[in-house]
UniProtKB/TrEMBL annotation:
Residues 98-129 form the 4Fe-4S ferredoxin-type domain. It comes from Metallosphaera tengchongensis. This is 4Fe-4S dicluster domain-containing protein. GO terms for cellular component: plasma membrane. Pfam families: Fer4_8. One of its GO terms (molecular function) is iron-sulfur cluster binding.
């Protein structure tokens, strides 16, 4: 019996004989098919090493490519190219070009943690994917994505306002960055009630959190990418 057509596209380098006998037992169907031994070369080990040496990417070496992360991924439904398994595989091979080609997908992780909770090997998948993305940004291989730009705007607003988020200032920064479009009518509709209630003052300049001077250095340190000691 020949190998079903549906299986052929995923099988590479296959040997299939008409008749195979093992220990006196004749094998047929897919049991008489054998994979040719293959060796891949040209790995760029430096990519894997650098990612594995970050706090976020430290578990990349545990991945055994089972695909559990991708099969349960929230983003998979919206973006067929989003595959944590594939991102990790390409990073471990050092295939920077393929990762660059996937740049419009790789940043879309919503941090739902399904992949991390389901991984049978204990890979912190969400963190590893972020580490791969950060590697590409660090080396100037991809453009700064909307998610990263918004994160920077959010953190900048929080740090400038004593640990508080100013929705008004964040909205203005987002509009300037092209994330939000607002008509004059929308602005007037929003500003009217704020002016009457007196909340506009709090939105423009929120009060600082208590002991902000002590908290700020901690946040600044946490925002830096740490490196696992050798």
């Amino acid at each position: 019996m020949p190998i079903p057509n549906l299986e052929k596209p995923i099988i590479k380098g296959l040997i299939q004989k008409d008749k195979v006998i093992v220990d006196g037992v004749e094998l047929d169907g897919t049991w008489n098919a054998f994979m040719i031994e293959r060796t891949q070369t040209g790995y760029d080990q430096s990519v894997w090493d650098e990612i594995a040496n970050t706090v976020e990417g430290a578990t990349i070496s545990l991945c055994w490519q089972c695909g559990t992360c991708t099969s349960g991924c929230t983003m998979r439904e919206y973006d067929p190219n989003y595959s944590p398994r594939r991102f990790i595989d390409l990073a471990r091979k050092g295939d920077k070009q393929s990762l660059v080609e996937l740049q419009d997908s790789i940043w879309r992780c919503v941090s739902c943690q399904k992949c991390t909770h389901r991984c049978p090997k204990g890979v912190l998948v969400e963190e590893v994917v972020h580490s791969i993305h950060n590697y590409l940004l660090k080396h100037g291989l991809v453009k700064t994505d909307p998610g990263t730009v918004f994160d920077e705007l959010f953190l900048e607003t929080v740090m400038k306002n004593g640990g508080r988020i100013s929705e008004l200032l964040l909205g203005g920064a987002s509009a300037k960055a092209g994330f939000v479009t607002m008509s004059i009518r929308d602005l007037i509709t929003m500003m009217g009630p704020l002016m009457k209630s007196g909340l506009i003052k709090d939105l423009m300049k929120p009060s600082r959190v208590k002991e902000w001077d002590r908290i700020k250095p901690v946040l600044e340190e946490a925002m830096k990418e740490e490196v696992v000691p050798q």
